[in-house]
Amino acid sequence: MARLVDKVAIVTGGGSGIGTATVRKFAVEGATVVATDIASDAGSAVVVEIGANAVFLRHDVTDESQWETVMKEAVDRFGKVDIVVNNAGIIGTGAPQDPENLSLDEMHAIGKVNVDGVLLGCKHAIMAMKDRGGAIVNLSSIAGIYATPGLVPYGASKGAVRQLTKSVAAYCGQRGYGIRCNSVHPGIVETPMGETVLNLLFDDPEQGREERRKQVPVGRLGRPEDIANAVCYLASDEASFVNGAELVVDGGQLIL
Ligand SMILES: NC(=O)c1ccc[n+]([C@@H]2O[C@H](COP(=O)([O-])OP(=O)(O)OC[C@H]3O[C@@H](n4cnc5c(N)ncnc54)[C@H](O)[C@@H]3O)[C@@H](O)[C@H]2O)c1
Q1: Is any atom of ligand 1 closer than 6 Å to the C-beta of 226?
Q2: Which residue's CA lies nearest to atom 10 of ligand 1?
Q3: Do residues 35 and 43 lie in contact, with contact meaning Cβ atoms separated by under 8 Å?
């Protein structure tokens, strides 16, 4: 039995990496998926590959009026929204992120997408789902839990996502909305962003990949599908008693 039958899901950042893997996984599990992204060509290509059960909408998660449009489109086309995955995120603009050299511009650029975008996603998910219940899954990172000396603004943004997830879960519980909200914390995953992280952290990215791989008890870096599987679990009714939780999906890196 597919796990998301009759569910309507919105996945932000669906045009790349973990978002694309999540759109594919949700479709396989029976959901109707609204994939959104600022990258129109990549996002459109993903839904074409899936067929009738997915649509793409261009959507900048930092723009509240675009959230209103996305929610309205989803409800107009499919009658409801059951799941919102706040996946869109950036690692940075390439400017320094160590605490001596970072700029407030960089802090704000990262916070705008990674924090404002997720906050808006939670706000509009609550408004769309509060009468029927639903699930919100927010992409944080292990960078939101442990120290990231070379990526201070990115780590801070992911720490904010970890915390706001719990507050949203508690708020929805207080109001009796039947909305669960959980965060997922990947280690390094083989996506365009994962590649950028290796380039930022190591002078020799290939050597860095090897070093990182050795730090992971399961002996490899993450695949987008590893994270999509975790997102799917949290979005599904199998996780109906999982709320305000942080699911670390890092092959065991954090336990060492
Ligand atoms: N890849 C990793 O190693 C890793 C590790 C931990 C957490 N994460 C988190 O997982 C999520 C997905 O990461 P990924 O590796 O798939 O990244 P990615 O760079 O491959 O994809 C991110 C997608 O988000 C979209 N996006 C960026 N800004 C946007 C905006 N303002 N509005 C809408 N869409 C926007 C991009 O166009 C892109 O398609 C991110 O939140 C990231 O921080 C990734």
Answers
A1: no
A2: 139
A3: yes
Q: Quick one: which H or E segment has residue 247? A: strand 246-249
Distance CA 57, CA 38 (A): 9
Residue spans of the domains in the chain: they are 8-255
Ligand 1 pocket member 89 (CB < 6 A): yes
For tokens 């039947």, what's the residue?
178
DSSP lists the bridge partners of residue 136 as 84, 181
Angstrom distance (rounded) from CA 101 to CA 229? 37
Using a 6 Å cutoff on CB, does residue 90 contact ligand 1?
A: yes
CB-CB contact of 120 with 70 (8 Å): no
Query: What is the position in ligand 1's atom list of the atom closest to the CA of 20?
Result: 16
Architecture of domain 8-255: 3-Layer(aba) Sandwich (3.40)
Establish whether 177 is a catalytic residue: no
Q: For the chain (length 256 residues), average pLDDT per consecutive 10?
A: 96 98 98 98 97 97 98 98 99 96 98 98 99 99 97 98 98 98 98 95 93 96 98 98 98 96
Q: Give the whole-angstrom CA distance, residue 147 versus residue 158.
A: 11
Structure-token pair, residue 81: 């929204």
Burial code (b: 16+ CB inside 10 Å, e: under 16) for 140-168 equals: bbbbbbeebeebbbbbbbbbbbbebbbeb
